[in-house]
Every structure is written in structure tokens, then in C-alpha cells.
Amino acid sequence: MSMLELNDFGKRFTVHHLGETMQAVENIDFSLETGEFIGIVGKSGSGKSTILKSIYRTYLPDTGCLLYDSRRFGLIDLAQASEREILYLRKYEIGYVSQFLNVMPRTTSRKLVEKALLEMGETEEVARREAEQALTHFELDPKLWDTYPTTFSGGEKLRLNIAMATVKKPRLLLLDEPTASLDQQSKEKVREIIKKLKTNGTTLVGIFHDIEFMDGLCDKVFDMNRREFVAEKQGVVHES
After folding, report:
1. How many C-beta atoms lie closer than 10 Å to residue 1's C-beta?
2. Smallest Cα–Cα separation from 225: which of 216, 213, 237, 233?
3. Which residues neighbour 95 within 8 Å (Cβ) at sequence distance 6 or greater?
4. CA-to-CA distance for 99 and 48, rounded, in angstroms?
5. pLDDT at 155 over 90
6. How does DSSP assign 121-159, residue by residue?
7. Measured distance CA(193)–CA(236) in Å, rounded
8. Neighbour order of strands in the sheet with 37-41
9. How much is the pTM?
């Protein structure tokens, strides 16, 4: 059984002040097995992020189904799942990393990473130790660990965002341009974590404009223009 399967997925958005409905993406079909990493490529506006946000259920799909093989619920259609089920999956099974940081105000970066682990049932001692290891790995200056991330640079916020998501070792990890504002050294740190997660069985779906980052990392590349899997190098020509 596939870990995730999208069948005839589609999403529309209504522009209320114009009274118009726009089709963001339609007729998407793909599946991935446990431990696979799928990269999604396509020009801006082709619906790449819409797919990830619909899997995470930030967006509610309009057509089709998104079948996920949950450890807790078994085979579940994310398009039809209850809010309670989605909240559980986000906490314990499905992680999401974007280039933007949206966290609780007046909470330090250390506490944010610790909270992610405590939610998984880890002890305070384990949460503290693994949070420090994650923050160290992504080279967040120790001087920033006990400060609020609202003052961080874009790159610092992104590294914290990645640390919060990956420290939980989710079954399914969605990566929406996670290296957008990182320098080359930080990108290599992300590659290391992705490889480690894959080795341990995490399934991943990612969007990267940095094609070199994807090279040798993805098992498959899904081309939004052709609506099919292509050879990794073939997918490059559709990026913009």
C-alpha cells in the first residue's frame, strides 16, 4: 500500500472582491511509497504549494481524494478527515516546513523546539537535549536560543522552522521551498537531515527551486506541466 496517493486532485480559489473563481490546480494523480522522496517542479503559479498545503489540510481540496496510510487511523482521505483527525496527524505524523515562520509569540526558539518534542510524549530531559542538538546542527547561534524569533533574520527563522519540523521525525514530511533563504552551508545541513530521515523511513514531498539541491536526493520528480513523473534532469527545464 502506498503511503500517500492523490487521485484527480483539484483546488479552486474564489476572489471575492472580483466575484471570480480561479482553478489553481486540477487533475493531479501520483502516489509514493514509504521512505520515498518526491520532488515537485513547475513554473511559478503552477500549483506546487497548493498541493502541499492541501495534503497538510491548510487548504480544503475541491475535487478528488488524498489517501494517506496513517499509523493511527489506517487509510484516511485527508480531504474528508475531521478537524480532530487532522490536528492529531499534524502533531504526531505529518510535518510541514515552509520558508515562513509562524509560531507562538513570546516563546523562545529553544522552547519552540522543546515543545515539538514534548507534544510527542518525550520527557523534559530528552526534549531539552534533542532541542539543543537540533539547534546546534542547524547552526543557530546559542545566543539566540533563549530569545524570541520575531527578531531573527529570514535565514535564522527558516533554520528554526526546519529544526522544529524535523526533530519530531514525522512519518510524512512536506517541504515547501525550505532552502529559499539559506546559504550553501545551511543547505548542506538540510540535506544531511533529509538523508537521515529517509534512511529512518520518513516519506517526503518537496518543492525546491534550487535544482542542484534536489540532484541525487529525490527518488522521483513530478512535473506539474506534464502531470507526470519525469527523469530528474528533465524536470529542470520547467522551473522558473
Report:
1. 10
2. 237
3. 165, 166, 168, 170, 172, 173, 174
4. 14
5. no
6. T--HHHHHHHHHHHHHHTT--GGGTTS-GGGS-HHHHHH
7. 24
8. 94-98, 172-176, 203-207, 37-41, 220-223, 228-230
9. 0.89
Task: Write down the pLDDT at residue 240.
Answer: 37
CA distance 162 to 158: 6
Q: What angle do CA 206, 212, 215 make, to 5 degrees?
A: 70
Which contiguous run of DSSP H or E holds residue 174? Answer: strand 172-176
Tell me the per-residue pLDDT of 58-104, one tens digit each, with 9 for 90 and over. Answer: 999 999 999 999 999 999 999 999 999 999 999 999 999 987 766 66
Mean pLDDT within 167-192 = 88
Residue with grid cell 537531515, as numbered in its chain = 193
Dihedral pair phi/psi, residue 92, rounded to 5°: -115, -20
pLDDT digits (tens, 9 = 90+) for 33-59: 999 999 999 998 899 999 999 999 999
Q: What number does CATH give the domain 36-60+83-238? A: 3.40.50.300
E strand or H helix that includes residue 89? helix 83-92
Residues 11/52, Cβ–Cβ less than 8 Å? no
Which of 110, 141, 140 is closest to 127 using CA atoms? 110
Q: Which three cell numbers stand for residue 64?
A: 478528488
Q: What is the pLDDT of residues 196-223, one digit of tens each?
A: 889 889 999 999 877 778 888 899 999 9
